[in-house]
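Exercise 7. Given the components listed, write out the predicted structure of the assembled complex. Treat all entries as one system.
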Amino acid sequence: MLIFVEYKWNASYMKIEHINGLVAAPFTPMKPDGSLNLELIPTYYQILKSAGVVGAFVCGSTGEGPSLTFKEKMLMIKAWADCAKKGDDFKIIPLLGGTCISECVELAQYAAAAGVHGVSITAPYYFKIGSVDTLAEICRTVAGSIPSTPFYYYHIPVLTGVDFQMISLLERVDDIPNFAGIKYTHEDFMDFLSCLNYKDNTYDMLWGRDENLLSALVLGAKGGVGSTYNYAAPLYHDLITLYNQGKPEAAQKKQQQSIDMIRLLGKYGGIATGKAYMKLMGLDCGEFRLPVKNMSAAQFESFKRDVDHLTSKAFVRQFLLHIVLLNSCIAYGKQQPCLCAGKYKRFTALVN
Amino acid sequence: MLIFVEYKWNASYMKIEHINGLVAAPFTPMKPDGSLNLELIPTYYQILKSAGVVGAFVCGSTGEGPSLTFKEKMLMIKAWADCAKKGDDFKIIPLLGGTCISECVELAQYAAAAGVHGVSITAPYYFKIGSVDTLAEICRTVAGSIPSTPFYYYHIPVLTGVDFQMISLLERVDDIPNFAGIKYTHEDFMDFLSCLNYKDNTYDMLWGRDENLLSALVLGAKGGVGSTYNYAAPLYHDLITLYNQGKPEAAQKKQQQSIDMIRLLGKYGGIATGKAYMKLMGLDCGEFRLPVKNMSAAQFESFKRDVDHLTSKAFVRQFLLHIVLLNSCIAYGKQQPCLCAGKYKRFTALVN
Amino acid sequence: MLIFVEYKWNASYMKIEHINGLVAAPFTPMKPDGSLNLELIPTYYQILKSAGVVGAFVCGSTGEGPSLTFKEKMLMIKAWADCAKKGDDFKIIPLLGGTCISECVELAQYAAAAGVHGVSITAPYYFKIGSVDTLAEICRTVAGSIPSTPFYYYHIPVLTGVDFQMISLLERVDDIPNFAGIKYTHEDFMDFLSCLNYKDNTYDMLWGRDENLLSALVLGAKGGVGSTYNYAAPLYHDLITLYNQGKPEAAQKKQQQSIDMIRLLGKYGGIATGKAYMKLMGLDCGEFRLPVKNMSAAQFESFKRDVDHLTSKAFVRQFLLHIVLLNSCIAYGKQQPCLCAGKYKRFTALVN
Amino acid sequence: MLIFVEYKWNASYMKIEHINGLVAAPFTPMKPDGSLNLELIPTYYQILKSAGVVGAFVCGSTGEGPSLTFKEKMLMIKAWADCAKKGDDFKIIPLLGGTCISECVELAQYAAAAGVHGVSITAPYYFKIGSVDTLAEICRTVAGSIPSTPFYYYHIPVLTGVDFQMISLLERVDDIPNFAGIKYTHEDFMDFLSCLNYKDNTYDMLWGRDENLLSALVLGAKGGVGSTYNYAAPLYHDLITLYNQGKPEAAQKKQQQSIDMIRLLGKYGGIATGKAYMKLMGLDCGEFRLPVKNMSAAQFESFKRDVDHLTSKAFVRQFLLHIVLLNSCIAYGKQQPCLCAGKYKRFTALVN
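Answer.
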């Protein structure tokens, strides 16, 4: 039972590798009838790999974890873990839940057995946690159930309503050997830097706000998890490279391009817009489930025009790259390439 | 699949009986190891019946629905439905979920088959709903999957963060024949009265704030759902009787007693205090699960002293009544009476 | 200086009369150029008196106190105090401020000298107060500067962002002899009843939510302060009478009429709609100042149509009564009656 | 009257110089009796100048503007403007208000006449603004009343509750020639970068969160306004220098020192802690007014110990520098140096 998880801590503390690079939070592909489209995942995996993405945060907010059944989450975890299992270094980290700690534990053990790199939970978001001690206790319970698997806390106050300082959490989890770090999706840079600096950079602090990545890099962030890395990783790779080369002005331009892209999410109703970007590039992941609202067909046409307008040449190149990669993947996978020549032409015209 | 639920609406609209009286939101009894204590439920059921409670809102907030696994929710629903099935008029209404509409549908169908009176959902509380139209669509999806079972929307913005005017929801659900009404746990009396008056009192508006019951009665409320009806129903029955007899001053005193009782929830850390009240009266439902914090043993001693202080004679009488009922139930059930003579004596002394 | 106000408490505690009836929160009349229209106030005063209103809460939220200069607030206080001074029992209570305690003290002393019945402050709304002790200290500072004048705390969390339990404030102000009570503009009925019952009904608890008046009456409220009492006092007097006669169903209907009227505030942009109601009845108080948005001329036409639709016969009668009173007042005041026969006719037609 | 301010826009748009460097938001010095200690301001001015600070944001949040009377704000503005008038380039920018636009206009004109560099307003914080158009209209009204003086909007949602995207405001103020820019005290870096990039860096975007300065620098911020620049400007100058030299790791360390310093504000009750820092360094600005809570004497002792602990050598050097500057200033001003040798020794010991 959940309350009596036996903590089999390793004799010596785990040495957990920090993630360096971009982790995408993949969309959960769905069929027109709303069921999972698991067959798309190997292609999806290849696209992310080819784009230089280093991992996938599965069943997260972007992946609609809270809208999936327990069984569906198992299927998703299995499908992604199977892709990554073949010896390469692509890291699968599923979000387990959720408001029910027992189900988190059950899913954590399933995921660990399936061979994921790590697991993650958010704070429960129905009953509000009264103290950071309780939050640490929850982490201890779930992490303790899979002692050999890195555990990440997913900090996203805008959705959970739980907004403790994460430095306070870190101060309470030193006794959890597999507490790897935090996926930090919040704009409290003061807290974020404090966490980075805590105990000489012990914990892996993954930045979760794509639109502010540059402001996190300057604080020392090395890894990020986000939804736009699904379709615009090259843009962010450029941003990171420029920053590392000591060219902040150029990096600012890339960040602004990312912001312009992200503003369309606000304009078209939020998180579901991400799947519209994917569709535009040829990887149709279907629609978001309730309670998320999807674009109408008319909105999608308007959205396409907006995408054309926002695309500077540099941005279009990223798209093209992505499309080419996608076509290659599909070709390799012996599937029918889904991108018509017309779309390729449209983008090419914009570049030249 | 969820998106394509086939709506088998009745040819003519259902005539749904309004609930008149108090519905308790029972605690989920748990064993010391944190697992369900299902054996307690028949006794629990008898106590509520004997106290004049007319129904049970199972797996709600009080019942820790969001902290239970899907399987545990099925077990709870079954256990309560079995109690009520024997021909009497006690109404079982489970809260289904939750953030995952698919699981709500699955559980709704299970509950309907188990013979519950009705089912209920809250708004999803992870992704925030953008419009009341979407909320109506969610209700349509779940209600449509169990077309012969009354469906209640559970409005509790303090926990879900979803705070639409319920009159706007009612205006959008006229096409759902089994939309019975709303469990209204919010202090917007303007909206509540508007809902009561909508279409000549068509919908069953169940008041969900025990501490304000009197202010709802004067607006025309006939039924209430609450956690303190588990252990203090006689107090509220007195309140209702006095109000109906045109004695508002006396009813105010009863309401103040209820408030004094409820303030101890605030003092001792919130929702878990309810199980402490139950324990005090002899029905030990165990502890709340994470993320809710339970009282320490020392706090429980202090809590007991506070209960003694708050108890006016009238209040103690309610407790005594409850204790006697409990003992009777247990005696009939051939279990060992769990209440020592000492406790009975303590309360009796306070009355005389 | 503010910090060192010398407390000249009366030897024995003041006996402060509780207000019984409706206190209007008058709009601040403005000329087309945005300056104060002080000449309207004697007429305004007569209208309120004739409608059975027992007092005026001047420079409150409705009166745009926070948008007036210090000098303008002095002028308003003087104008109203002069009206009420002539020996009758109409109670003037100005809202002093504000974020600056020193200015509240200065204005309190000015108002007391001008002969007001009482004064009132809200919690400061820029810097957020850390504890209810600090709030009590602020009340002590301002009340202590006018020890012979009743002091009311104005609780309106939706605008100040300060949301302590008022029962906690009362427990800390027993040492302030002229702390009269609280203008309670919030939906926490549990707290409100606790305040009513505190020390055997010592404090004057004035209900501040017109749309929920009935739910406060049943708890024992005797007085209310509100904006709709400016133009619909007869409706609320009916409501109170019906409630006192033990006719809750009829009182509910009156409350619903008040709600329907108040909903138009939401539809037409909020607080400024109140001045549109006044204009419709013939007392043109001009426009609201920035930052409040006024209706456009087109919106006003639409608003007028909505008012016609919402008016049940009973409601129209209130309007007519008000209009007749207004005309009488103006006639007595030897001003030109501003209501054309046409408007009177329109309303009369609706009744007959 | 406010509504009819005549807009005397310059024929050609003003060319407004962007501020480069740190602007302190000075505390308002107060005597033990709570009245203004205006005599301290020339010394205060010299200290800021000597520390390389380029301006003062007078009567802001740090300066308790909302707790000052109108007259006191005039006195403060005059005192600071007089210091800066003598031909140097130190920029005085007062915060005008407040909730009353008329008073803002009056004070703006007074300040402009007194010779300030610019003026600033926040959004009104009692009535909540309904749209960004209304906010622009307010800016137009105030800026239009002082057409030759740069106008800054002060964005601080945590205190005003008004949280529009500032890029939306900029899009609506192109017709205000003296709209200089925004003091941006919020963590929305996406919005901040968008504002920086708007119309080729037209507007002066002053960063208002000292604890996140580094994350703003990387986006292109050149100026900042803050409270800790009163007592720790050298630390931030180091941070800026290191960042400009392409040494982000070293800059991160400086930012962390700033954070450690700022955390003590949280520990000791907030904004009033700033005056404790000032006192510790020898410039006693007295206490904060109500509603802000000051440290007790015991807390101040504990605070001093915490300051000793947080001071890395580098940090202590800043303090020493500041103290030396202060002593010099006071010596030049022929006042008695207020720093005992003991304090100097204590800090020196920590460095060596």
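Discussion: DSSP finds 14 helices and eight strands in chain D. Strands of chain D lie at 21-24, 55-58, 91-94, 119-122, 151-155, 179-184, 204-207, 223-226.
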